[in-house]
């Protein structure tokens, strides 16, 4: 028997996931919109925030609601019909959904990625009827969102605890299963579409009793083909595939008409071989020491402690080159082009202090961070981050980063739509087994009324001072690369600069890449990214793991840089793609055709002793 909606306090469901929601939001706030940040959110909480919650669904369609409370809205007939039709389609792939119980139906606001604005959607959520109140976060469930006006589907997300795994699908498996699902769902062939770019995902959910399930998925985009060539980021669909090839979610937007006359004719493009040669002329390799942990990817947003395993001496590219124009073979810097080799950098000699800070509790974190860095964490609320604490087994027996998250106390009477300034927050990272403090992220919050920034030299000095106490107690060389924020970036001629918000091009921090050097060779990741407030020089971000220089491999590389580059290039493939450049909310008058390197086969580094590619791999169960 289904539970009448009149007995579901919609609020009761929200309360269940509130802690997970806040933990996910704080993690994202603390680390920015990064893969790790995204993975750290609970799928249930994260997707619900954006109107695409993970849940469980069933043939118990949206029209089969018993005991509808009078105050609740119901979809209009035509809208409800479309919703039911899509739910029935998805149920064909998952027959067990026919036994699910309707938990939640709501007409609510949902963030829309395309416009950046909130829009109304119909949100439907189903759950395993055997799930108890305590077990709901880790129960089998599925959710859907539908367009407010016409009932067209926008997303579905499924959570099956029996599929929990830290394994990613291989790129080939992800594409195969996504293609198969797309063709069956829409009863169409892929001649006009292509499963294209993929990017990581992940989820975790925790019950009241601390029970945890963790799993991974890869999100693949379905792109449209123009003249037989995919248009990047053009498809209105993305499909989530887990490590076993199960489809666990889909996001859908409205397909727009495309003027085919604007697309350049690909017949006169240069050959892939010519594109590869042009790429090789731009590409640079670098010899460096790399922590073994950087070559092993635990997955599910787990951040391992660096430096516990032996260092590797490797070559890797130190430049990310823009896609190459398919007619000229030249990179287009208006898309993206970043190389540390061309950034301002200095080598400085410093005397480390060999210091360490250990924190075994929230109180110790507050006290020691205040004493060492002057940050008033006592004025902030502590928010437990179960996704970094990993209270349950995570199938990865390695030292991990434990994160303490703090957020500013806010007046609950203030309307959240009226709050425009950022809150103060902090994230303090410690090693899970020793409690050693290895990182801090701090946001001052409030509105920025500052006008006079400090000099780059002063900011660099401040950044070095931040990490100096935690370097080895000896004289050490540092390579400091300036990542100076763009104050007057160059834009293509089609960009109307008067329409670009000042806040979009000005940053309130100055950042640096800092690498210790040993025998002139940089050590990657052990210090890394450090940033300070561009007006005060106060800490914003730093990471510093202990370094034992005596444990670094001393042998000189056997393989030359040129040979390493040749091996790496042999692994690269190139494909043609149309790209329609967009900067903020402005789009170029027409698309362009590019060669884009496919790094799938070259995903890794070159061993400096053997010359072989060391692939990035995941820890196994």
UniProtKB/TrEMBL annotation:
Renumbered residue ranges of the record's region Disordered: 50-79
Signal peptide extent: 1-23
Top-level taxon of the source organism: Bacteria
Keywords per UniProt: Signal
Polar residues bias locations: 50-66
Listed name of the protein: Peptidase propeptide and YPEB domain-containing protein
Organism (species): Heliobacterium mobile (Heliobacillus mobilis)
């Amino acid at each position: 028997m289904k539970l009448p909606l009149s007995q579901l306090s919609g609020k009761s469901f929200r309360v269940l996931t509130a802690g997970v929601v806040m933990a996910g939001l704080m993690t994202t706030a603390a680390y920015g919109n990064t893969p790790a940040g995204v993975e750290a959110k609970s799928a249930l909480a994260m997707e619900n925030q954006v109107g695409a919650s993970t849940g469980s669904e069933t043939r118990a369609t949206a029209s089969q609601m018993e005991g509808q409370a009078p105050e609740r809205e119901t979809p209009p007939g035509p809208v409800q019909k479309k919703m039911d039709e899509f739910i029935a389609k998805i149920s064909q792939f998952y027959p067990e959904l026919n036994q699910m119980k309707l938990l939640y139906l709501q007409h609510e606001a949902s963030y829309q990625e395309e416009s950046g604005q909130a829009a109304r959607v119909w949100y439907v959520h189903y759950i395993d009827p055997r799930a108890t109140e305590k077990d709901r976060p880790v129960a089998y469930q599925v959710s859907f969102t539908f367009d407010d006006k016409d009932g067209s589907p926008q997303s579905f997300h499924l959570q099956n605890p029996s599929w929990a795994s830290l394994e990613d699908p291989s790129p080939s498996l992800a594409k195969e299963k996504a293609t198969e699902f797309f063709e069956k769902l829409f009863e169409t062939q892929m001649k006009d579409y292509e499963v294209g770019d993929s990017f990581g995902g992940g989820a975790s959910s925790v019950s009241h009793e601390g029970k945890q399930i963790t799993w991974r998925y890869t999100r693949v985009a379905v792109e449209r083909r123009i003249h037989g060539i995919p248009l990047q980021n053009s498809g209105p669909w993305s499909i989530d595939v887990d490590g076993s090839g199960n489809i666990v979610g889909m996001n859908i937007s409205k397909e727009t008409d495309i003027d085919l006359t604007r697309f350049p004719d690909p017949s006169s493009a240069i050959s892939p071989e010519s594109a590869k040669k042009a790429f090789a002329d731009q590409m640079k390799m670098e010899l460096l020491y790399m922590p073994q942990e950087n070559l092993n990817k635990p997955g599910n947003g787990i951040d391992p402690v660096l430096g516990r395993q032996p260092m590797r001496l490797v070559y890797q590219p130190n430049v990310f080159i823009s896609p190459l124009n398919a007619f000229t073979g030249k990179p287009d810097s208006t898309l993206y082009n970043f190389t540390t080799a061309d950034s301002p950098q200095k080598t400085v000699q410093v005397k480390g202090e060999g210091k360490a800070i250990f924190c075994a509790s929230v109180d110790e974190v507050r006290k020691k961070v205040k004493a060492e860095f002057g940050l008033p964490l006592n004025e902030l609320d502590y928010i437990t981050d179960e996704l970094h604490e990993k209270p349950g087994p995570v199938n990865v027996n390695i030292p991990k980063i434990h994160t303490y998250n703090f957020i500013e106390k806010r007046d609950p009477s203030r309307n959240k739509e009226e709050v425009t300034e950022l809150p103060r927050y902090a994230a303090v990272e410690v090693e899970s087994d020793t409690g050693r403090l290895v990182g801090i992220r701090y946001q001052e919050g409030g509105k920025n009324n500052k006008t006079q920034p400090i000099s780059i030299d002063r900011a660099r000095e401040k950044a070095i001072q931040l990490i100096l106490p935690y370097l080895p107690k000896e004289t050490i060389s540092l390579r400091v690369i300036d990542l100076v924020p763009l104050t007057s970036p160059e834009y293509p001629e089609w960009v109307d600069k008067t329409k670009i918000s000042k806040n979009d091009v000005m940053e309130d921090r100055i950042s640096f890449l800092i690498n210790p050097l040993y025998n002139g060779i940089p050590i990657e990741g052990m210090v890394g990214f450090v940033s300070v407030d561009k007006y005060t020089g106060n800490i914003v971000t730093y990471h510093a793991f202990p370094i034992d220089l005596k444990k670094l491999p001393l042998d000189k590389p056997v393989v030359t840089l040129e040979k390493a580059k040749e091996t790496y290039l042999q692994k690269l493939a190139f494909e043609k793609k149309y790209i329609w450049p967009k900067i903020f909310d402005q789009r170029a008058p027409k698309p362009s055709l590019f060669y884009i390197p496919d790094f799938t086969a070259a995903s890794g580094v070159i061993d400096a002793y053997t010359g072989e590619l060391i692939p990035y791999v995941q820890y196994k169960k």
